[in-house]
From TrEMBL:
Its EC number is 6.3.2.12, 6.3.2.17. This is Dihydrofolate synthase/folylpolyglutamate synthase. Residues 46-270 form the Mur ligase central domain. It holds the Pfam family Mur_ligase_M. It comes from Labrys okinawensis. Its cofactor is Mg(2+).
Length: 443
């Protein structure tokens, strides 16, 4: 256990609830720390259900291509907590930002622990306070800030004057905290919108769009709406973006899947609708090839997993975990199948807080079989047997296993007409365990 892990363990015990949406505790701690959230660089605040991390990856790639120093805050992490906090390189140093060092993280944790003095506060709140402290103390041009959960009452919503607000695709997720009413979920997400700060919005279903427009009108936030004010499509193997200012002809994103075209378009629209940073066409072109985001249709070609599977297997890792994320993943896999047909095998583990049935129904008629595995480090993990039964109810052949290794060895023992396409999915927590098992942790 590292020293930062020891702090994280103590933070987990400071509040009986892992998630308790409120701004009171974070505002109290930030005041004791001297309000670092008021001293961070200009903020681009990003909320939504799916696509937040990928959209931030495109934003970061474009801004760094333009020569700006970029801080990034995302969650959850996959393997190490440090992944959540990326600091811009010091002025004058070449290259993009780097994950926070252990020494800097410990220093920030210690300051927050002392300032909090044992008062009730959630894990996300105190670690977000540490992130704000780090962002305030290390120079950068811009901070890309991802919402943790919801928006209106999320810990990150202490930023009262963002440069820009971005809302990605909205669908059902976190029903235990946000409910099942899509309009209510949209209202929570739209809670990041602020007076005078442009809100750039992913194309949404009518009910969601209406709620966002209502909230924006109430707070005085001008909106730029996907499908109305900007559009993105593929043409002749290129990505075409269009808005009232003109057209961009770009390479397809390095991130796989048609949904990433839309996330890229959202990021482009965001940067074309702020007046502080100069981002030119060439920077967007570079960003399409530079943007990376682990466990989002990530190709795994090296490591322990390829060594265990049949030679020539095509292996993908995707952290999709809700119904809409499963739909998007299934669409991407169907496109892969059209281009190069292979037997599709899913390896999946899921949490009790997610709709396993709805997620797995997306793959009926597409996947040859499902191998279910435990998520070792989550108390909310659904048993492999329960996930396998959900797969069977969805019309999929399924087998439960006691470990990831056992599932991979079972796949390796089968006879396939050609090497299979193996997709590991169902949970970001599982994705983290898979990357650690494979020996390819995010950097």
């Amino acid at each position: 256990m590292t020293q930062s892990d020891a702090y994280l363990s103590r933070f987990m015990a400071l509040h009986p609830k892992k998630i308790d949406l409120s701004l009171d505790r974070i505002e109290r701690l930030l005041a004791k720390l001297g309000h670092p959230e008021r001293r961070v660089p200009p903020v681009i605040h990003v909320a939504g259900t799916n696509g937040k991390g990928s959209t931030i990856a495109f934003l970061r790639a474009a801004l760094e291509a333009a020569g700006y120093g970029v801080h990034v805050y995302t969650s959850p992490h996959l393997v190490h907590f440090h992944e959540r906090i990326r600091l811009a390189r010091p002025t004058g140093e070449a290259g993009g930002g780097t994950l926070v060092s252990e020494d800097k993280l410990i220093e920030a944790f210690e300051a927050c622990e002392q300032a909090n003095d044992g008062a009730p506060i959630t894990f996300f709140e105190i670690t977000t306070a540490a992130a704000f402290k780090l962002f305030a103390e290390n120079p950068a041009d811009v901070l890309l800030l991802e919402v943790g959960l919801g928006g209106r009452m999320d810990t990150t919503n202490v930023i009262d004057k963002p440069l820009l607000c971005v809302i990605t695709s909205i669908s059902h997720d976190h029903a235990d905290f946000l409910g099942n009413d899509i309009e209510g979920i949209a209202r929570e997400k739209a809670g990041i919108l602020k007076r005078g700060a442009p809100g750039v919005i992913y194309p949404q279903i009518d009910a969601v769009r209406a709620v966002i427009e209502s909230v924006a009108a109430k707070v005085g936030a001008p909106l730029v709406i996907g499908g109305q004010d900007f559009d993105i499509h593929e043409e002749n193997g290129r990505l075409v973006y269009q808005d009232e200012r003109g057209l961009l002809d770009l390479p397809l994103p390095r991130l796989a899947g048609r949904h990433q075209h839309r996330n890229a378009g959202l990021a482009i629209a965001a940067l074309r609708n702020q007046g502080l940073f100069t981002v030119e066409d060439a920077h967007f072109e570079k960003a399409m090839q530079a943007a990376e985001w682990p466990a989002r249709l990530q190709r795994i070609a090296q490591g322990a997993i390829p060594a265990l599977l049949p030679v020539g297997s095509e292996i993908w890792l995707d952290g999709s975990h809700n119904v809409d994320g499963g739909r998007v993943l299934a669409e991407a896999l169907a496109e892969l199948e059209e281009r190069h047909s292979r037997p599709l095998v899913l390896v999946t583990g899921m949490l009790t807080t997610k709709d396993s049935d709805g997620f797995l129904h997306n793959f009926a008629g597409l996947a040859r079989e499902v191998h279910t595995v435990p998520i070792e480090h989550s108390a909310a993990a659904r048993s492999p047997e329960a996930v396998a039964e959900a797969a069977r109810q969805a019309g999929l052949a399924a087998r439960a296993h006691g470990s990831l290794r056992a599932a991979l060895e079972a796949i390796a023992s089968e006879a396939f007409p050609v090497a299979p396409r193996v997709v590991l999915t169902g949970s970001l927590y599982l994705a983290g365990e898979i990357l650690a098992f494979n020996g390819t942790t995010p950097k």
